[in-house]
């Protein structure tokens, strides 16, 4: 997959977002100086497939508290979600799923799907009463059976668009 460098990003921050190492990014992009990045530069992320090759896309509506799965451009499924509270809002933007962890423990329920923004993901919950509310630290919470269903369908590299 290709990442376009944004203002204030470093190779280190990009590596964190995509859960890879700076060394892997340096090798994949044949960078002579990893400290010299420019806004708009294209960086190859070696272990993530190109989202354009994946028939799925996820659109999250924070205000509606809904996650919609699209398959080949058509609505496939919709799920109720919980989102971030006002002081820890769910980040608006375009991301991809970079990895996953079944049964991550704690409040994260039955599955964790990491987004390409460090510390954020789509996950299950040990508090199903929170679904439909703005209560998280910015992550997208789903019922455990829903996040397992979603994870069984979408591969890593799936585009996730979070809208207000």
TrEMBL record:
Top-level taxonomic group: Bacteria
Into which family does the record put it?
Belongs to the YkuD family.
Pathway where this protein functions? Cell wall biogenesis; peptidoglycan biosynthesis
Entry protein name: L,D-transpeptidase
Write the record's keywords in alphabetical order, separated by commas.
Answer: Cell shape, Cell wall biogenesis/degradation, Glycosyltransferase, Hydrolase, Peptidoglycan synthesis, Transferase
Task: List the catalytic residues.
Answer: 123, 139
Q: What Pfam family is a match, any one? A: LysM
Q: Which residue ranges does the record assign to the L,D-TPase catalytic domain?
A: 56-163
Record-annotated LysM domain positions: 1-45
Q: Which InterPro entries match?
A: LD-transpeptidase, LD_TPept_cat_dom, LysM, LysM_dom_sf, Transpep_catalytic_dom
Give the record's GO biological process terms: cell wall organization; peptidoglycan-protein cross-linking; regulation of cell shape
Give a Gene Ontology cellular component term annotated to this protein: extracellular region
Q: Please give the organism.
A: Bacillus weihaiensis
> Membrane: is it a keyword of this entry?
no
Please give the CDD domains that the UniProt record associates with this protein: LysM (cd00118), YkuD_like (cd16913)
Gene3D superfamilies associated with the record: L,D-transpeptidase catalytic domain-like (2.40.440.10), LysM domain (3.10.350.10)
Q: Does the keyword Glycosyltransferase apply?
A: yes
Coiled-coil spans are none
Provide the organism lineage as a comma list: Bacteria, Bacillati, Bacillota, Bacilli, Bacillales
Q: Which GO terms describe its molecular function?
A: glycosyltransferase activity; peptidoglycan L,D-transpeptidase activity
């Amino acid at each position: 997959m290709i990442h376009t460098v944004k203002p204030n990003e470093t190779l280190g921050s990009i590596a964190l977002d995509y859960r890879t190492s700076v060394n892997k990014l340096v090798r994949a992009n044949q960078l002579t100086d990893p400290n010299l990045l420019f806004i708009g530069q294209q960086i190859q992320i070696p272990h993530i497939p190109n989202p354009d090759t994946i028939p799925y896309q996820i659109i999250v509506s924070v205000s509606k508290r809904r996650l919609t799965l699209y398959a080949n451009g058509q609505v496939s499924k919709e799920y109720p979600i919980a989102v971030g509270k006002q002081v820890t809002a769910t980040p608006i933007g375009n991301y991809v799923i970079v990895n996953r962890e079944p049964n991550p423990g704690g409040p994260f329920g039955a599955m964790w799907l990491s987004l390409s923004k460090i510390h954020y993901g789509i996950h299950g919950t040990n508090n199903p009463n929170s679904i439909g509310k703005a209560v998280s630290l910015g992550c997208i919470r789903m019922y455990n059976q829903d996040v397992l269903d979603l994870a069984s369908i979408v591969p890593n590299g799936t585009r996730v668009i979070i809208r207000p």
